[in-house]
Specification:
Its EC number is 1.1.1.35. Keywords: Fatty acid metabolism, Lipid metabolism, Mitochondrion, NAD, Oxidoreductase. It comes from Funneliformis geosporum. GO terms for molecular function: (3S)-3-hydroxyacyl-CoA dehydrogenase (NAD+) activity; NAD+ binding. The chain is α/β, with parallel strands linked by helices. The protein folds into 2 domains: 228 residues, 3-Layer(aba) Sandwich (Rossmann fold); 88 residues, Orthogonal Bundle (N-(1-d-carboxylethyl)-l-norvaline Dehydrogenase, domain 2), CATH 1.10.1040.10. It has 14 helices and 8 strands. An 8-stranded mixed β-sheet has the order 3-2-1-4-5-6-7-8. A hairpin with an 8-residue loop joins strand 6 and strand 7. The longest helix has 23 residues. The protein is globular, with a radius of gyration of 20 Å.
Amino acid sequence: MSKFVISTFRGRLTNNVTKTTFKTNLIRPLLLSHNFSSTSNNYAVQNISVYGSGLMGAGIVQVAAQYGFKVTMVDLNQEFIDRGKEIINASLKRVAKKQHKDDKAAQNALIEYTWSNIETDIDSVRGAEKADLIVEAIVENLQTKQNLFQQLDKVAKPNAIFASNTSSLPISEIAKATQRQDKFAGLHFFNPVPQMKLVEIIKTSQTSKETYKILNDVIMKMEKAPVICKDTPGFIVNRLLVPYLMESIRLVERGEASMKDVDTAMKLGAGMPMGPFELCDFVGLDTLKSIVDGWRKDGKIDANLVATSKILDDLVESGHLGRKSGKGFHKYV
Ligand SMILES: NC(=O)c1ccc[n+]([C@@H]2O[C@H](COP(=O)([O-])OP(=O)(O)OC[C@H]3O[C@@H](n4cnc5c(N)ncnc54)[C@H](O)[C@@H]3O)[C@@H](O)[C@H]2O)c1
């Protein structure tokens, strides 16, 4: 069934047949179960635990829940969980409004349905108990990610698949912390998760075909577009994007053009939806810096492509991290 047909069909159901949450909830899982039939063994993912309720984690939780998965959102404390809930709430309202324009009942039904699929937990062990799939979206630090997966490996179901949303760390290095490297892969979502269609599925040399197939099914069920990539620095998108962002910063640093003009040039001359400085702020300057620093240390990428930038380092050091802190290259207040 094409995406267009699925969307139209759902639209008709919600608009003409199912005016109540109750009916929507009954019919939606039937529609959504369609994709499961293609899984090669009978292992179907129903429960997903997402670790990290920040920018990415909250987005992944929202999309998974919207598409019928039972999701547990796990973070270190209630304050972080509450912030994650706020991110979901704001985004979900936008999605509901976009999908169901003037139909308030259908908007509320989508919001209620999504929340009915979400639980939260601040106990990392308990958070993993039900999971068929664990998606990790915590801080971009190899040791922290390894520590978490090592702990989860001992308590999660033996068949549970583990995935990391890392932007820049080698998946195979994170996977080494576990005894299930065949059930370990990268699932690289893009920001903002509810809007961005692409998900890179990263296969290490150990990732089994079965694991890849199941992850592919999960991503299809979320109506996203999966692409496969080997475990190579930056995968596809960031490998091309990060050197471009860094060269934009260096171009301004060298005094060759202003930040405003570089943003304008790339939007109007190269058809980019955002200028590189707007994109840096959107991604988070700390995230960008940690990717570049990591790659430089790693030595696998041409050093000129990942050379340091004083402007970037200074902004991060002063806590100006982009949109999330209210100021980066641009101001957001
Ligand atoms: N920001 C982006 O545009 C983007 C895009 C794709 C992938 N990523 C990757 O996604 C991951 C998360 O990025 P983000 O921007 O959402 O970060 P973020 O800082 O917004 O959120 C990280 C969250 O993880 C939580 N956390 C830390 N340790 C934890 C633990 N042991 N258990 C549970 N929660 C824990 C933190 O409390 C925080 O809420 C990173 O690996 C990053 O590289 C980021």
